[in-house]
Design brief:
Helices cover 28% and strands 26% of the residues. By secondary structure, the protein is of the alpha+beta class. It has a domain of 110 residues.
């Protein structure tokens, strides 16, 4: 899979100007309000651009909320996405009276002989990328069409995990809040039994009482997530599991699915997880990255970052209302790493960036 190698953003929310190299695994850590979630939300913004639904999305949120410090300070948002095969995509959108206008949208083939983009749109209210037939556009189209941004925060009685889903229609990819978990898992069990069994074993490694899922659809094709324990034949619902276990189940399915998306973006996946489960989560992230999926996540968990190399970690600070991003480097902290782990250094304030402000 082609991954996004570099991203440049200007004028978006708390991001005044950013140029950041990306890797297979990218873990953003910082205090609340530092801008981690704003960076992740930019990928939703990209999705809306690609899906030609930007104006509807902006109307729902309010145009001022997207511009860095509002339109009194910022009038336009621009970005460039660069890939390893020298292909790139860029756009600039400017605030109009009621919506954004594309003043530039282009495809790049970065080499010494071509320094300007090939324009695909100008003065439009929606992107033209999705319908573009230029050969180099297929790389960008493939990446943007496979962005999946997840958050598994809601585990209450009416959570998405407790919803019915359809075994015929809701099986093609895992929905961002996990509302089709039952149908998606049912499909895996019936088409990829080896993968299904790996998922079961992974769940059992942190919940030994868990025996298996009880996946029996109704005649209508609707199915709800249920399970059984090792201590009887009672059939339980999702709400009979702890919040942390529900989230870990969703994370296991997300990262172990047979054909993962090209990029997985997730905010605070460690919420509610026991340290043992966090260690398992780190292993799942590494495993899916080895299969070619790019992982971009935000966290405040020192337990989670302790399982990764310094180069996987980007600290985020907000200084004078602007988000500042810095990727760690093992060479710069090599002497410290002889005695301490990454999470130790962050806790001890030796890594000074990305720290909470009290």
């Amino acid at each position: 899979m082609d991954i996004l190698r570099k991203i440049s953003i200007q004028g978006y929310k708390s991001i005044k100007k950013l140029e950041l190299d990306l890797d297979q695994i990218n873990i953003f850590i910082g205090a609340n309000g530092s801008g981690k979630s704003n960076f992740l939300s930019f990928f939703t913004f990209l999705q809306k651009i690609y899906q030609q639904s930007l104006q509807k999305y902006v109307a729902m949120k309010g145009i001022e909320t997207f511009l860095h410090k509002g339109s009194d300070v910022t009038q336009e948002i621009s970005a460039k996405l660069s890939f390893p095969n020298t292909n790139a995509y860029s756009f600039t959108i400017e605030k109009g009276d009621y919506d954004f206008i594309f003043t530039e949208e282009g495809l790049w083939y970065d080499n010494p002989y071509m320094s300007n983009p090939e324009d695909i749109a100008s003065l439009n209210t929606e992107s033209k990328l999705k319908n573009n037939s230029l050969p180099r556009s297929k790389y960008i189209q493939k990446y943007l069409s496979q962005i999946r941004k997840y958050h598994f925060h809601d585990t209450g009685v009416n959570s998405p995990f407790n919803k019915e889903s359809n075994i015929h229609n809701d099986i093609y990819f895992l929905y961002e809040e996990g509302s089709n978990l039952a149908a998606f898992l049912y499909h895996i069990k019936n088409t990829q039994l080896v993968t299904y069994n790996i998922i079961i074993k992974t769940i059992q490694s942190i919940a030994p009482y868990f025996r298996d899922f009880y996946l029996l659809p109704e005649e209508s094709g609707l199915i709800r997530l249920k399970w059984q324990s090792n201590y009887g034949e009672t059939i339980y619902g999702v709400n009979d599991l702890s919040d942390g276990t529900i989230r870990f189940i969703a994370l296991s399915i997300l990262f172990l699915q047979p054909i993962p998306p090209q990029v997985i973006i997730i905010d605070e996946p460690e919420l509610g997880l026991h340290p043992t489960a966090i260690a398992k989560l780190a292993g799942l992230i590494k495993s899916v990255s080895r299969r070619g999926t790019q992982v971009i996540l935000a966290t405040q968990s020192t337990d989670l970052i302790s399982h990764f190399d310094a180069e996987n970690i980007i600290t985020v600070d907000q200084i004078n209302g602007e988000s500042v991003f810095e990727r760690l480097n093992s060479e710069n902290i090599s002497l410290w790493l002889e005695e301490y782990t990454i999470d130790d250094l962050w806790k001890r304030n030796i890594i000074k960036t990305g720290q909470p402000n009290f």
